[in-house]
């Protein structure tokens, strides 16, 4: 049965994206107010904001969760030309805001020369990889060679497209052996 729920997100500007974790019990929202919020689903069926922090110096376009096998890890992308990777590090003592989760920035990927418009983690069978795309028409694939050290990411592929890119997606099939990109041949 489908039940629609309304929550008061209390962002200070337009919300651009909502992303659920693998189990659907957590969600993240991002906004032009330069922040990301994490929400946990309570036993009572209500969503509670458990983390809220400023993530970028520009509008945050997208937020995405890694597979839980890699921990509680989020990535966000922004108009400020960066991608940030965040890892949950337990609880804080900020009772005045009723927040109890702390997310720590592990890295900032700064290869783009224009707004980064989308970010997605790869399916878990491909390891801890991250795809980004930007306004300048570049798709980048990064990999964390050591999943225990999220401060180190290496650029694996950089694909130039003829047009601006606004979204990127992974093929979740385990039978797909390669990642293919279709480029115009002229």
Automatic annotation (TrEMBL):
PROSITE patterns: WD_REPEATS_1, WD_REPEATS_2, WD_REPEATS_REGION. Keywords: Lysosome, Nucleus, Protein transport, Repeat, Transport, WD repeat. GO terms for cellular component: lysosome; nuclear envelope. Pfam families: WD40. WD repeats lie at residues 8-41, 53-87. It is found in: Lysosome; Nucleus envelope. The keyword Transport applies. Its main location: other. It comes from the Eukaryota. InterPro entries: Sec13/Seh1_fam, WD40/YVTN_repeat-like_dom_sf, WD40_PAC1, WD40_repeat_CS, WD40_repeat_dom_sf, WD40_rpt. Transmembrane segments: none annotated. GO terms for biological process: protein transport. One of its GO terms (molecular function) is structural molecule activity. This is SEH1L. It comes from Nematostella vectensis (Starlet sea anemone).
């Amino acid at each position: 049965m489908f039940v629609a729920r309304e929550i008061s997100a209390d962002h200070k500007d337009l919300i651009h994206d909502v992303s659920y974790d693998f189990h659907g019990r957590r969600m993240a929202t991002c906004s032009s107010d330069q922040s990301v919020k994490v929400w946990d689903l309570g036993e009572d069926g209500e969503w509670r904001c458990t983390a809220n922090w400023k993530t970028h110096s520009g509008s945050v376009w997208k937020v995405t969760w890694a597979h839980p096998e890699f921990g509680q890890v989020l990535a966000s992308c922004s108009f400020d030309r960066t991608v940030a990777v965040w890892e949950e590090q337990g609880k804080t003592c900020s009772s005045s805001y009723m927040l109890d989760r702390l997310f720590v920035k592990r890295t900032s990927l700064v290869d783009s020369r224009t707004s980064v418009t989308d970010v997605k983690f790869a399916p878990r069978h491909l390891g801890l990889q991250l795809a980004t795309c930007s306004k300048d028409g570049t798709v980048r694939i990064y990999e964390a060679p050591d999943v225990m050290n999220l401060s180190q990411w290496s650029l694996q592929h950089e694909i130039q497209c003829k047009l601006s890119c606004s979204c990127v997606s992974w093929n979740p099939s385990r039978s797909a052996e390669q990642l293919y990109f279709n480029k115009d041949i002229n």
